[in-house]
Design goal:
By secondary structure, this protein is α/β, with parallel strands linked by helices. The protein is built from 14 helices and eleven strands. The longest helix has 24 residues, at 353-376. The protein binds glutamine (GLN). Glutamine is lined by residues 109-112, 135, 155-159, 187, 294, 406. InterPro entries: Amidase, Amidase_CS, Amidase_dom, AS_sf, GatA.
């Protein structure tokens, strides 16, 4: 089998299913075929192959790719052609993965269903009447539907883990700072992380190995040694101490999800782990704090889209103010505008102490909840999302319920810790996700436990 065969297979599958799933925004077929042809020459020479040699990958459309349109699923950037690659894309090229194309998402990564894409929704491959989750819904659906081997997503409040859960695949949000954000279009810079969406845990370890590491181009990038994630998959979890937060299993959690998580924990116990109930008492304040902080950061980050430098410019402006005003009014969708308004309000003088500062304090309390539990436990385990995927259209007019859905993933971003979602069962034909949360930089442990469970 050649790399060209793999790439052909990928586009063939896309031709067969993407009319229904609609995971892709842009296909990069010409480049992919040229890369594949070049790699075929290298086939016989094992020593020269990169870690991900010849493997078809999809990339979320908020990660910039040189010469390939990068839209963030926004009308504002529908013609934006980046002049450089994100660091993760450079690293993928070094590892010799083959980029197949760019994947759909909620506009600027704001959302949890992919219905906020300004182009079209993506549909859940298990049942196309349901959403694939979001905001990395295209990234999750493309992997679940077999269109690519794996993909990259970004996670600000759950956007890798929740779609992975809804689509029955593995999604990993690394520790804040482990993977470079250079070239990731910023949503909320203190929360955003890029990470892998894969079919299984071993693939997740490989992809993380390829993209992790210090980057001088990202000032928040951690200067740490990268362990060997692949050899961490030993299968041994004897004596592992697992914490089950009671707040993650209470009201609002679907009984089928709860049962599935409990039986997953039984299995882990049978492998030699110890499970005990703990409390993360500030969990109930996480959603409110997150939507204030993330929107505040977004209102500032998105100020760069003014119609002058990037993307689409309003036609025939009367003056500069009119140019800004109309470019932004026409370019941004409703959810993005909602967040910019909320964030601008929260940051305005007179309200700053009452909202932004208070939310920062809540963030610290949530971080301390985790610190305390990690003094006596190796890992925190619970559901990834309160329910399985919901129907397309069910929550489009109800942003608050949509926001509350993120209750189990948001605390992880606020604390900056790593977490993985892996499949642990089904309810009514739709996958359920199990979330494993670790100490900072304990990706090797999370992957080891997830692999033992799988
Ligand atoms: N659903 C959350 C939001 O809308 C998370 C998004 C994300 O992680 N990018 O903000």
């Amino acid at each position: 089998i050649t790399v060209t065969d793999l790439v052909n297979e990928s586009y063939k599958r896309i031709g067969e299913v993407d009319g229904k799933v609609r995971a892709f925004l842009t296909l990069d077929e010409e480049n992919a075929r040229a890369t594949a042809a070049a790699q075929d020459v290298q086939l016989g020479n094992k020593d020269t192959r990169g870690l991900l040699f010849g493997l078809p990958i999809g990339i979320k459309d908020n990660i910039v790719t040189e010469g390939v349109i990068t839209t963030c699923a926004s009308q504002f950037l529908r013609n934006f052609n980046p002049v450089y690659d994100a660091t993760v894309v450079t690293k993928l090229k070094e590892a010799q993965a083959v980029s197949i194309g760019k994947l759909n998402m909620d506009e600027f990564a704001m959302g949890g269903s992919n219905e906020n894409s300004s182009f079209h929704p993506t549909y859940n491959p298990w049942n196309t009447e349901y959403v694939p989750g979001g905001s990395s819904g295209g990234s999750a659906a493309a992997v679940a539907a077999g269109e690519v081997y794996f993909s990259l997503g970004s996670d600000t409040g759950g956007s890798i883990r929740q779609p992975a859960a809804y689509c029955g695949i593995v999604g990993l949000k690394p520790t804040y700072g482990l993977v470079s954000r250079f070239g990731l279009v910023a949503f909320a810079s203190s929360l955003d992380q890029i990470g892998p969406l894969t079919k299984n845990v071993e693939d997740s370890a490989y992809l993380l190995q390829a993209i992790a590491g210090h980057d001088p181009k990202d000032s928040t990038s951690a200067e740490v040694d990268i362990p060997d994630y692949i050899s961490a998959l030993t299968g041994d979890i004897k004596g592992l101490r697992i914490a089950l937060p009671k707040e993650y299993m209470g009201e609002g959690i679907d009984p089928a999800v709860r049962e599935s998580v409990l039986s997953a924990l039984k299995l882990l116990e049978s492998l030699g782990a110890v499970v005990e109930e703990v409390s993360l008492p500030h969990t109930e304040y996480a959603v409110a704090a997150y939507y204030l902080l993330a929107s505040s950061e977004a209102s500032s980050n998105l100020a760069r889209f003014d119609g002058v430098r990037y993307g689409v410019r309003a036609e025939n402006p009367a003056n500069l103010l009119d140019l800004y005003h109309r470019s932004r009014s026409e370019g941004f969708g409703a959810e993005v505008k909602r967040r910019i308004m909320l964030g601008t309000y929260a940051l305005s003088s007179g309200y700053y102490d009452a909202y932004y500062l208070k939310a920062q304090k809540v963030r610290t309390l949530i971080k301390q909840d985790f610190d305390k539990v990690f003094e006596s436990y190796d890992i925190v385990i619970g559901p990834t999302a309160p329910t399985t995927a919901f129907k397309v259209g069910a929550l489009v007019d109800d942003p608050l319920t949509m926001y509350l859905n993120d209750i189990l993933t948001i605390p992880v971003n606020l604390a900056g810790v790593p977490a993985i979602s892996i499949p642990c069962g089904f309810a009514d034909g739709l996958p359920i996700g199990l979330q494993m949360i670790g100490k900072p930089l304990s990706e090797a442990t999370i992957l080891r436990v997830a692999h033992a469970f799988e």
